[in-house]
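can u pls check wat happens w/ farnesyl diphosphate
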Amino acid sequence: MSDALTTEIRVAELPSPALGEWGWRDLVTLCKPRVVLVMLVCALVGMALAQPVLPSPAVVLYGLAGIGLTACGAAAFNHVVDRRLDAMMLRTSRRPLAARRMPGSIALAWATLLSLAGLALLVWQVNALTAWLTLGSLIGYALVYTAFLKHATPQNIVIGGVAGAAPPLLGWTAVTGQVGPEPLLLVLIIFAWTPPHFWALALHKRDEYARAGVPMLPVTHGEAFTRLQVWLYGWLTVAVTLLPFAIGMSGALYLVGVMALNMRFMVWNYRVWRGQDPKAPLAAFWFSIRYILGLFGVLLLDHYAQAWSLWMAPGIQ
Ligand code: HEM
Ligand SMILES: CC(C)=CCC/C(C)=C/CC/C(C)=C/COP(=O)(O)OP(=O)(O)O
């Protein structure tokens, strides 16, 4: 019997409620709410950076609701597509579909409803460009990454990372109706950050991915190679995080803040690379989330600090 099958049977043997015994909490779980929340922070910062003055409350409200609902829909589609795979891995086996609490048809209807509501809100209250780009992220994550790339190549999360990296661009276009170099730079930061973020977790969960037959990098290329990639992509992340200062988009406050974050980020990535502390990959994964939140927080602080000093400058009111 294959290892993957053994795992599936072991999970299936866990006591689980009968199909149909799902509740509203399961509908929330399908949305991956914590991931979506961090994405919304990134989208909000994209909105704020798009202009020196505060964005209109209506754009912020409708924009975040539209992007958030669609991202929730994308996450719910991911649960539907991945339900058999999720059942094979301990980390994901308690999810509503994997644990067979909820019928797939309900989750599919929920995913469709959320996505349509989000996209409709963007078309109706924000702008068509933001709706199209958000639809692109939805397809990129729910279909291209989940249904295809995840099973096809260890570069799955690098390519799929483009979809997850989109929120600051979506926030920016919600306010301006245009794509620009600045929001693309913010996308590049999340894009470069995704491999250290995910491969740190994949190192910790290597055996689960191997048993489930998912070609994640530590499974296909080994742990030492993946640890090196975390270190190298860490440096790439550091390099691209300096670009907002280099092109004059952000100021000294950002530079100081991001240097402090980068130092801690690289300490964790170094520990992952050296491979001597078995707890380092999981700790590095959790730090990566604080890092990306901190980075977008510092971008926001710096932006309003700059805007404030402009307003305060004599002769400019
Ligand atoms: C393709 C790109 C990405 C991949 C493959 C990925 C992968 C993962 C995985 C496997 C988890 C663990 C989830 C769990 O245990 O339920 C996770 C957690 C998380 N990710 Fe990512 N991620 C990606 C992009 C992002 C982005 C763009 C953000 C935010 C900007 C993000 C924020 C988070 C957060 C906040 C968590 C913690 C969730 C929790 O506390 O349950 N991720 N990520
Ligand atoms: C419209 C828009 C902005 C869409 C964004 C879509 C979105 C919610 C991306 C989340 C990224 C993520 C958690 C990937 C992990 O997927 P995984 O399936 O490899 O992880 P899992 O094993 O925990 O399910």
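DSSP finds 15 helices and no strands in the chain.
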